[in-house]
Structure formats: C-alpha cells, structure tokens
Design brief:
Layout lengths: L1 H19 L2 H48 L3 H27 L20 H20 L2 E2 L4 H8 L13 H25 L2 E2 L19 H28 L11 E8 L42 E13 L3 H8 L3 E5 L9 E5 L2 E10 L17 E13 H4 L5 H15 L1
Parallel strand pairs: 1-2
Antiparallel strand pairs: 3-4, 4-8, 5-6, 7-8
C-alpha cells in the first residue's frame, strides 16, 4: 500500500515538474485573468454609474450652478428685511388712517355711549346744538334764502305807509302790479348779490324736528341722538363741498353752486306733516343688506363687522359746467379736528374720505315755476343735480361711542333677517 502511494506521489511531482517549466507564465496569466475580471466588472458598473450620473449628478450640478448664479447676496437679505418692515408700517398706517376717518367731533359729549346725566335736558341741549350747527354750516358758506313774503310785503308797503287800494281802473291796477313786480325783482336781485348760495335750514333733515323734539323714552332719545349725529357729519361734508366749490365768490351770480335744494336720508324731498323738515325727515339707517339702500350699490358694500354703511340723497342747482367738478369735490378728502372721545384732549387734525356717488341725474330748471320764482341764478346755464350717495364709517374709529340701544337694534334686525 505504501509502495503504491509513493508511486502516485512521484507521478504528481513529475506533473508539477512539468508545470515548473512554465512557472514564469503563471503570474502574467493570473494578472491577465484578474484584468479581464476587473474590466468586466467595470463595464457592468460603469453603465449603471453613468446612468446614475446622468440622471442625478448632472442635473444636481446644473441646479447648483443656476442657484449659485441667482443666489441672493447677504446685503439683499437686509434690503428685503427693510422692505418687509416698510410694508408692515404701511399696513399699520392704513389701518390708523381708516380709524381716524370716523374719529370726529361730537355735537354733545354728554350722551355717548351712555349718558351719565339722568336729566332729560341733555337731549334738549343736543337739539339746540344740532340746530345751531346747521345754522353755522349755512353761515360758513354765506348761505341765504330768497326774500320771504314778509320782506316783500315790507318792501312794497313800508311801515307807516297806508295800504294802496287797487282802484281807479284797469290801467292803474296794472301799473301797481308792475310796480310790485319791479320791487320784487329788485329785492330778489339784492338777495342773490348778498349770498354765495341759496339754502334754507328747513330743507335740511332734522332741523325742524329738533326744534320741537318730543321725548318718549331715554333709550329712544339716545338712539335718536346717535343717528342724527351721523346725519350731521354727512351734512357737514355736503357744506364743505359747497364751500370749496364757491370759494372766492360772494354772489350767487358767480358761484358754481347756486342752491342747495335738500338733503334726505329717507328717499327724496317730502312735505308730509310731521316728517321733521321739508326735506326727507327720516334719520339715517344702516344699510345691512341691499334692500336697505336708496339705490343699487355697484360697490356691493353693506354694514358688517368692520364698517357701517349709510345712504343719503342730495339735490343742488349748479352751473351746468360744474356738474362733474361738484361730484369730484364731494368725494374728495376733507379735514376734521378730533379732540378725543371726551372732547377735552389736545386737538388733532385728521382726514376723511367717506362718500361714493352711486347714482347721478341732471335735469333742466324751469325758471318760471313757483319753486324758482323768487330766485335769481344769473346768466349761467343752470341744471338740477340729484345724487344718491354712500357714506362709509369705519367702526374701529367710533364703535366705542355707539350706544347699546343702537347695537341692540342692529343685531336684532340682523338676527330677524337670518331667520
């Protein structure tokens, strides 16, 4: 057995000896094989790597390159910060200016939001202040009315002169009438020369009402005062417009605005007994939905949590060339003084711009009609301009003064309509 194994080993060694003669080729061969293996692996991995590079690395590199080209410099960050701060300041300023528009002076500082004085006399005082305010507004525009019947009678028959008897035939009667007509015309012309605009307090809502105001309940009286305070602010803006338009004119003949016919919050002029004035005597109402308004509003604005909306009508006689200018002036920025909600703080001058014209109508004036018989407008072409306007009140500026009685009525109406 041992002999056989020895013989086998000799055979193996003889073979190894044969390989020994080629040992110098083993290493190169191994390297060559390894190279083929590496090449094959490289080719396989290379295709997937190339694909990955094309799909991921190259686009990423291009994106980085683009971002590097458009990268915001560090200084730009500070500029953007300043811009955002300015934007915020503008927004805050707009909010402040909006609030200031309805921070207006009050006729009485004893009533809102709730009167501390239990006396009914504070409401009589409000009425006197309202009427005095209207009279001051008329005086501020040098407003006058046509001659009254008493003035005409006095001019035709001075005191101490006996009344003329219309006797002596038709010719004498006709002459007397001509004399009266001449006197009337002279007096009417004098009135027109002495006034910048025709206006009568009775044609403004609330003036007659507060001359004979009837107190019912405290709650109702506070509510009335609030709405007529809103009315006064609106009328005040109308007269500021007239004053600006007629600035520099001391005569109706040269004034663009010839006459204020009426202002109304209830839809046109009325002479109904007990209405409160010759104008529409109703007090302002909040427009909470479209049907509350005096006209269809193209703005679509109604009272909400941020604003209160009121509609009013205005009728004036103007020079036909001043129609557009009047509407522009009516809607322009106006100044007002605010002394705090107590009325005792340092005076601040603010601005407001709250009027939008919703509808406008012009019509010819019949100079021969009774309505214009005692008025003299000059040689200008005069038209009647009727406007329906929207008035916006920023609640943040005056809600703190709004009486609870008003808030309750408004909320009650809102809840009723929801049902």
């Amino acid at each position: 057995m041992a002999k056989i194994e020895l013989t086998q080993f000799k055979g193996i060694f003889s073979k190894l000896g044969f390989l020994k003669s080629y040992s110098s080729l083993v290493l190169p061969g191994a390297i060559l094989i390894a190279g083929f293996v590496v090449l094959a692996v490289t080719l396989l991995l290379g295709s997937s790597f190339k694909k990955k590079v094309e799909e991921e690395s190259i686009p990423l590199g291009q994106s980085v390159k683009r971002l590097s080209q458009s990268a915001v410099p560090l200084s730009q960050v500070e500029i953007e910060k300043e811009y955002q701060q300015a934007w915020e300041a503008d927004a805050n300023q707009i909010t402040l200016l909006a609030r200031q528009t309805t921070q207006r002076e009050l006729l009485s500082y004893k009533i809102f939001p709730e009167p501390k004085d239990t006396s009914m006399l504070i409401f009589d005082e409000f009425g006197r202040l309202y009427r005095a305010g209207i009279e001051d507004l008329i005086e501020s525009v040098n407003g006058r009315d046509c001659p009254t019947e008493a003035e005409l009678d006095q001019a035709m028959r001075p005191e101490g002169t006996p009344r003329r008897r219309r006797t002596g035939g038709r010719r004498l009667i006709s002459r007397a009438r001509d004399d009266d007509a001449t006197i009337t015309d002279v007096l009417c012309r004098e009135k027109a020369k002495s006034a910048s605009v025709y206006v009568n307090a009775l044609d403004l809502p609330g003036y007659e009402l507060w001359g004979s105001y009837k107190y019912n309940t405290r709650k109702e009286a506070v509510e009335d005062c609030w709405y007529w305070q809103l009315a006064y602010w609106i009328i005040e803006d109308v007269f500021e417009t007239v004053k600006a338009m007629d600035s520099g004119s001391s005569s109706v003949y040269t004034s663009p605005v010839k006459r204020v016919l009426w202002v109304s919050f209830s839809g046109g002029k009325t002479t109904t007994k007990g209405s409160g004035s010759r104008a529409g005597g109703g007090k302002p109402v909040y427009v909470r939905e479209a049907r509350d308004g005096l006209a269809d509003s193209f703005t679509g604005r109604v009272s909400n949590d941020k604003i209160d909306v009121v509609h009013f009508e205005l009728s004036v006689l103007v020079d036909s060339k001043a129609v557009l200018e009047f509407m522009k002036e009516l809607c322009s920025v106006k100044k007002h003084v605010f002394r705090g909600h107590s009325g005792s703080e340092a005076a601040e001058t603010y601005e407001h711009n709250q009027i939008t014209v919703l509808e406008s109508t012009t019509s010819a004036v019949d100079m021969e009609s009774d309505e214009h018989d005692l008025y003299r407008y000059g040689d200008d072409s005069v038209v009647e301009l009727d406007l329906i306007c929207e008035y916006i009140l920023e609640r943040s500026g005056h809600d703190a003064l709004k009486p609870e009685a008003v808030k309750e009525v408004v909320e009650e109406k809102k809840d009723t309509r929801r049902r």
